[in-house]
Specification:
Number of helices of chain A: 11
Structural class of chain A: alpha+beta
Strand content of chain B: 15-25%
CATH architecture of the largest domain in chain A: Up-down Bundle
Distance between the termini of chain A: 47 Å
Number of helices of chain B: 11
Helix content of chain A: 40-55%
Number of domains of chain B: 3
CATH topology of the largest domain in chain A: Butyryl-CoA Dehydrogenase, subunit A, domain 3
Radius of gyration of chain A: 22 Å
Shape of chain A: globular
CATH superfamily of the largest domain in chain B: Butyryl-CoA Dehydrogenase, subunit A, domain 3
Order of helices and strands of chain A: HHHHHEEEEEEEEHHHHHH
Structural class of chain B: alpha+beta
Number of domains of chain A: 3
Largest interface: A-B, 46 and 41 residues
Largest sheet of chain A: 4 strands, mixed
CATH superfamily of the largest domain in chain A: Butyryl-CoA Dehydrogenase, subunit A, domain 3
CATH architecture of the largest domain in chain B: Up-down Bundle
Helix content of chain B: 40-55%
Oligomer: heterodimer
Number of strands of chain B: 10
């Protein structure tokens, strides 16, 4: 087996050498460098297009999905090798996609064979860009109280209502949304629907955030007709799909927090700030805070590794992804506080060329949402208290 | 290697956990403390540790040990921590054995078999000041005849008054702060000029201030090489720090379990106090910190067992993280128990005391966070 994996690594390395353009081996500097795909996507350059097409043809945008659905059918070990080889040359992700991260896993788990064959390949190829319609103005942490309603009209539902915090809804081609189909049943009265954002009655309005960017939208449904074939799982059982996806999302967010290399924030800023004669970062209090942070990051990386090892072998507590989400997002917020401290006044510049369009302050402000989106830290703590610690009345 | 215990390791836990819980629960610590015991641990229990194979868990099979690794030693240490068992296990079977194994030679051949059978315990005479700093050793070893003459003093020598042998870090060259010029000696108890002044610590264990007045040892008392004692002390420190971190995880887990039970029993305002969200969130945060600490300790143990170069950094991460998490566990433990947590009768305070002693052992949280910075070049 290990010999086969060595062969596979050599094969991947050769394929990457031949197919990953030089331009795609540099860190992404701005939003346009991240390829989201979709009907209206405008490639920033040929390299971005070629890289996506090469990966899609090989199944490498979704390496562990079956070949029939646009993947490469790789095993977990092979996928790990592919990712490590991509990381080795600094290759960018060919495609960023809510279809891959969120809808795909739900379809793979709950979809019919027909649905999988219909929806998954265009996701893998980056042809259809999806957005997620969960939260509503009155339903944030208390998501199950959602009100958007799909009235049964025989062969279709007539959907009315609105969603909020729909990431990139203004750029998405399709939406997967939680829509109430039974007003009398709170948990078992929601259906997980899929529909085209170009359907008559759908409109979006970007929300300007404190970061100065508008990644989120309000999305309005005004008598939108959704064919009654376009749902996943069972009618009125969309909450099961949503819960599954939230678990997956938290796993993904926590995995992201644990990923990356062992970069020490203190080592990074010692270069920028300078060192004293003893070779220490030349601000003792900031040094101490960064060292404490680095310690927590390295410990959390071990946690991430342990979590994934246990998760994949069924050893993890089913609610432990909530702990990972809580700890990982709180850590990421702390990182960006320290980035701002390390950058000093240069970190305040909002739109200068030198600041890459204010990437530091905007990034810092963006992280404040980490502990809100996908379940707030407080909700995560509630879940840990109830499901893991078994505390009463929680 | 996956970052969880394999089947054999799980089996070891299944035998260590009930053995220690049955033979040395917290009441065992209390009875030693309250009877004014002068040894600091039970010699009978230590013989049983040897019979279970624990005393020689890291000792190679060629010397009569089990030949296992730091992951396995950590399993025993976690149970020791959970039960607050007073034991020479960490100093003798984990730290001293690691130095003797690394150095080899006559001292290893003499002491490793006796450690494995439970016939010898070893104390660590490393620090000279209240705050950890092995490189700062100035205890002088000067050439005399065929051997050396030791003069100076050490502190925080756990079991120093009763150990059969002391591993003593002495200076044969260089000056305070240098890693070169240090030499590690095996000094038998009873050597002329050696005197130990045992003091009761906050956690009821006994640690000595040890004086060396012209203590004469043969040349073969050197563990490893003269002036290169750091090569033998490095594995000792790594093992002691990782081991202390594992024991702390046991202390923290024990305190947390006790506290969670209390939250599910204690009623105020007509409700179980565990229903209050103010306490639930703190409990959940504590759980998260303890899990992360546990993962970092296991990672450090695995890297040590693999001889990985990254072990050094992870050892300090583990000691610091376990220190922070366990400190949170015992502080929340006392606070959430309310008034009863302040009483001597209730066990939670004993957990707080043991945590404090383990936190100081071989470098506290601040020492190791500083070390994380140094190892990363800043």
């Amino acid at each position: 087996m290990s010999e086969n994996l060595d062969d596979f690594r050599a094969e991947v390395r050769a394929w990457l050498a031949a197919n990953c353009p030089d331009e795609m081996r540099k860190p992404a500097n701005e939003e346009g460098d991240i390829c989201w795909g979709g009907r209206n996507w405008v490639f920033k350059n040929d390299a971005q297009r070629d890289w996506l097409h090469a990966c899609a043809a090989k199944g490498y945008t979704v390496p562990d999905w079956p070949v029939a659905y646009g993947g490469a059918g790789l095993s977990a070990e092979q996928t790990k090798i592919l990712r490590s080889e991509m990381a080795r040359i600094g290759a960018r992700a060919p495609l960023s996609s809510f279809g891959i991260w969120m809808l795909g896993p739900a379809l793979l788990h709950f979809g019919t064979e027909e649905q999988k064959l219909h929806y998954l390949p265009p996701i893998a190829r980056g042809e259809i860009r999806w957005c997620q319609g969960y939260s509503e103005p009155g339903s944030g942490s208390d998501l199950v109280s959602l009100q958007s309603y799909g009235e049964d009209k025989g062969d279709h539902w007539l959907v009315n209502g609105s969603k909020i915090w729909t990431s990139y809804a203004d750029k998405a081609d399709w939406i997967f949304a939680l829509i109430r189909t039974d007003k009398a049943n709170k948990y078992q009265g929601i259906t997980f629907m899929l529909f085209d954002m170009e359907s008559p009655g759908v409109s979006t309005k970007p929300i300007l955030l404190i970061s100065g960017n508008s990644p989120f939208c309000e999305t309005f449904f005004d008598n939108v007709a959704v064919p009654k074939t376009q749902f996943i799982g069972e009618v009125n059982r969309g909450w099961d799909v949503a819960k599954y996806l939230l678990g997956h999302e938290r796993e993904m967010i926590s995995g992201g927090g644990a990923g990356g290399d062992m970069v020490s924030i203190g080592a990074l800023y010692a270069q920028a700030i300078g060192k004293n004669a003893a070779g220490e970062l030349d601000d003792p209090v900031l040094r101490a805070e960064m060292a404490a942070f680095d310690t927590d990051v390295f410990a959390f990386r071990a946690m991430g590794e342990r979590f994934m090892d246990m998760w994949k072998t069924g050893r993890a507590h089913p609610a432990s992804s909530n702990m990972m989400k809580y700890a990982g997002t709180e850590l990421n917020k702390r990182r960006h506080e320290l980035v701002m401290s390390g950058a000093g006044s240069a970190g305040l510049e909002w739109d200068s060329t030198e600041s890459k369009g204010g990437s530091k302050p905007r990034g810092w402000l963006r992280t404040k949402a980490n502990s809100i989106e996908g379940g707030t830290s407080e909700v995560m703590l509630n879940v840990i208290a109830k499901r893991i610690l078994d505390l009463p009345g929680a | 290697m996956p970052l969880y215990h394999n089947e054999e390791q799980a089996m070891l836990r299944d035998s260590a956990a009930p053995f220690i819980a049955d033979n040395a629960p917290v009441s065992h610590l209390r009875s030693l403390r309250d009877s004014g015991d002068a040894t600091g641990f039970s010699r009978d229990l230590w013989k049983e540790f040897a019979e279970m194979g624990f005393a020689g868990i890291l000792v190679g099979e060629d010397h009569g040990g089990m030949g296992l690794g730091h992951v396995e030693a950590g399993i025993v240490l976690e149970e020791i921590g959970r039960n607050l068992t007073p034991s020479p296990f960490l100093s003798t079977s984990v730290a001293a054995v690691s130095a003797l194994k690394a150095a080899g030679g006559a001292q290893a051949a003499e002491w490793l078999p006796r450690i494995a059978t439970g016939d010898a315990i070893v104390a660590l005479a490393i620090d000279e000041k209240p705050r950890h700093g092995p490189e700062g050793s100035v205890l002088a070893a000067t050439r005399a005849g065929n051997g050396f003459k030791l003069n100076g003093q050490k502190c925080f020598v756990l079991s120093g008054h009763v150990a059969d042998m002391l591993l003593v870090l002495a200076r044969t060259g260089g000056s305070a702060g240098d890693k070169d010029g240090l030499t590690l000696f095996a000094v038998p108890q009873g050597a002329a000029g050696l005197s130990a002044d045992p003091r009761r610590l906050v956690d009821a264990t006994l640690a000595s201030h040890v004086r060396f007045d012209d203590v004469t040892v043969d040349a073969d008392a050197v563990v490893g090489e003269v002036d290169a004692g750091w090569d033998a002390v490095k594995p000792l420190l790594a093992a002691a720090r990782t081991g202390a971190a594992a024991e702390m995880v046991g202390v923290g887990q024990g305190a947390m379990d006790m506290t969670m039970d209390y939250l599910k029993q204690r009623k105020q305002f007509g409700r179980l106090i565990g229903e209050f969200q103010a306490l639930q969130h703190r409990a959940a945060h504590l759980y998260s910190e303890m899990e992360i600490a546990r993962a970092s300790v296991l990672k450090a143990q695995q890297l040590l067992d693999e001889g990985d170069a990254g072990a050094e950094l992870m050892v300090s991460v583990a000691k610091a993280k376990a220190g922070r998490a366990t400190n949170l566990a015992v502080r929340e433990g006392v606070q959430m128990h309310g008034g009863i947590g302040m009483t001597d009768e209730y066990d939670i305070g004993l957990y707080m005391k043991r945590d404090r002693a383990l936190a100081e052992f071989m470098g506290d949280v601040h020492y190791h966070i500083d070390r994380v910075a140094r190892l990363n070049g800043y």
